[in-house]
Design goal:
- With about 450 residues, the protein is an all-alpha fold.
- Helix content is about 75%, strand content about 0%.
- The protein contains 18 helices and no strands.
């Protein structure tokens, strides 16, 4: 089995922290301005954030059952391989390899550099004097952060988890400070909730809502994070489902609060298209110095999500390699640090490549569509699991929670494809390329030693 050489060292607290850290990342700090540009309505935006949270909780309930019954490394890769056929597991791992973890790492690193250079513009100015453009400076900063955290997690899961716990607690504390300070300032305006305009009627409005929900689900992505570390979680039948539900619930509450703060501090027209909305909101409420301070704090808060993705992604590729469906060397576990070392280094390389290419919005749409496909198939697997293993853990809500997730998931993908056919088609092409890749690996008999 793929998990035989990994050790169970993670309890409920670090497992929940990994879920929270994985979810709270570039999405909540960057997408609300893009959402407002399309929706033009603060109340509708807040409603969609709430809907996204409900969808994520429905998914967490489903994955909780699956993770308790199959507590190994790899998450969806493991579930789909056992419930259906190895090719489905491979394709989910293939998508994770191409975009699922590498792209969020790149997005978090780029988000850090944008907030950091907003807070400390002198960095870009210094590099400009040396003939390096601000765009290149931002990419260099992002790559540096990825390299630093790759080094941290290369040195072991226990060491990395300690750093992760600290970063996650600091990030949650930052959001609470933002909320308390922002709402107590008295300088915002709740009447902003009534500003804006209506969406276009008919199908055009539905397509905009579908795309918006897909971006929101990117911000919520990570509600399944601890399932990827099932082989390293203590007492997984109890700990794993609880970590998913606790983590997702905490994040949903924080997301609703911080989006309400954005609307309170920023007029809808001013918010449209702004990526660094957190800095803008605090600048409006407290002045330029607050913009600088909180932009800097948010920049470092993004370390937590970047760190979480660097923990999780390599475990998927490790599991694929152990099952003979990826390069043999990716299955190597470091003798001293006990981590899938080559897999971690591979993750670093792919993330660096993505930092050097694409725009934030294009990567967001491509990534959101690709990542929306396999969770639908995984949630469907709950019915299979209940038939095959009648004695397995049963969580409340079945089958309503699964039906909600499936219906909304299909609708989001359908509407998003119609709204952004180019990026969505590239995502489907990425999945399609994985089919011949699977048979090539099978034919060549790539096996772990």
């Amino acid at each position: 089995m793929a998990e035989e050489t990994l050790q169970r060292k993670l309890g409920l607290f670090p497992a929940t922290n990994i879920v929270v850290a994985n979810m709270i990342g570039a999405g909540i700090f960057t997408t609300s301005g893009l959402l407002m540009a399309g929706l033009n309505n603060p109340l509708l935006m807040l409603l969609l954030w709430a809907v996204g949270g409900v969808i994520a909780i429905c998914g967490a309930l489903s994955y909780g059952e699956l993770g308790a019954a199959m507590p190994g490394a790899g998450g969806e890769y493991l579930f789909l391989s056992k419930l259906y056929h190895p090719i489905f597991g491979f394709l989910s791992g293939w998508v994770s390899f191409m975009v699922g973890f590498s792209a969020p790492i790149a997005a978090s690193a780029l988000g850090f550099s944008e907030y950091f250079t907003r807070a400390v513009p002198g960095v870009s100015s210094s590099f400009e004097q040396a003939g390096i453009s601000p765009a290149v400076t931002g990419k260099l900063l992002a790559i540096s952060v990825i390299l630093i955290f790759t080094f941290i997690h290369y040195r072991g899961i226990k060491y990395g988890a300690k750093i992760q716990n600290i970063l996650t607690l600091l990030k949650v504390a930052l959001i609470l400070i933002l909320l308390v300070a922002g709402f107590s300032s008295g300088k915002g305006d709740f009447s902003n909730l009534g500003e804006g305009s209506k969406l276009p009627g008919g199908f055009a409005g539905l397509k905009t809502i579908g795309l918006s929900l897909m971006w929101i689900m990117f911000a919520y992505s990570g509600w399944n994070a601890s399932t990827y570390l099932g082989a390293e979680i203590k007492n997984p039948s109890k700990t794993l489902p609880r970590s998913l539900l606790y983590g997702t619930g905490i994040v949903m509450i924080l997301y609703m609060g911080i989006n309400l703060l954005y609307v309170y501090g920023i007029n809808p027209e001013e918010m449209k298209g702004v990526i660094s909305v957190g800095g803008l909101a605090m600048g409006n409420l407290f002045g330029k110095s607050a913009d600088i301070l909180f932009s800097l704090m948010i920049a470092f808060a993004l370390f937590s999500s970047l760190s979480a993705f660097l923990i999780i992604g390599p475990r998927v590729y490790y599991s694929m390699a152990k099952d003979g469906l990826f390069f043999n060397s990716v299955a190597n576990v470091h003798k001293k640090f006990g981590v899938p070392s080559n897999s971690i280094l591979l993750q670093c390389i792919i993330a660096v490549v993505l930092v050097l290419s694409g725009t934030f919005e294009q990567v967001l749409t491509y990534m959101g569509f690709a990542l929306g496909i396999f969770p639908i198939l995984t949630v469907l697997g709950v019915w299979r699991l209940r038939r095959r293993e009648p004695g397995a853990l049963r969580l409340r809500g079945f089958p309503l929670t699964q039906i909600i997730y499936l219906m909304t998931g299909f609708l989001i993908l359908f509407l998003s494809f119609l709204e952004r056919p180019a990026e969505s088609s590239i995502a489907l092409l990425t999945v399609a390329i994985g089919v011949p890749a699977y048979f090539i690996f099978k034919k060549n008999g790539v096996k772990s030693s």
